[in-house]
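tool_call: predict_structure(chain=1)
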Amino acid sequence: MSSGLSRSELERRRPLWGAMSDLFLDTEVREFVPSLALTCARSGYDEPTLERIFWAEVFPLGIGNLQQVAGEWAALALDEAELVRNAEKGKVPRLSKALSGWMVGSEWTGALTLLRWLRQEPTERWPLLVRAWVLLCRRYFEKPGDSSLFPLAEEVSALRKEGVDLGAEWQRFQPIARSMLLASEEGSPQARGEEVERLLVPPT
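tool_result:
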């Protein structure tokens, strides 16, 4: 495939294209946000470049999946040739973003916030923090009273042994979680927060 992007740029972008496209799946995507932040952090791109890649390259191809009655939910295979053409043009579709950007906006904004936090930490701590944020996502977005299929209590214990202060992480992560909660979802933000806090209570 002839491309205006160099081979090294293609290799650098592919993990980003894949991680960003997950936000356009017709399923629960909020727990993908921490992993997306990690992929962005590892890419080495600055925020303006990441914004352009998301809105100018991936968004125009991915948003149609969310606008369908029954969109793809398992994996979104975006056409690489189209992604490359979008990269070469580098233009954000402003009308489409204004009309439909809200469908992924809070998740993308959350990912950028987590990216900033990661870049303030030693790289060896990045995977631990992402694990903590995924755990918090899973508990917060469960319906109150449901039991998770994911062994959350075991993960809490494992992260504590690694020195992660889950209480502190929850305090700073909570506003991101609230921003991604839909008005139509069962359970108030306060009730969901209490579920998280119960999970984090150290055993006596």
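agent: The chain has two domains: 1-120, 121-204. Proceeding to next step.
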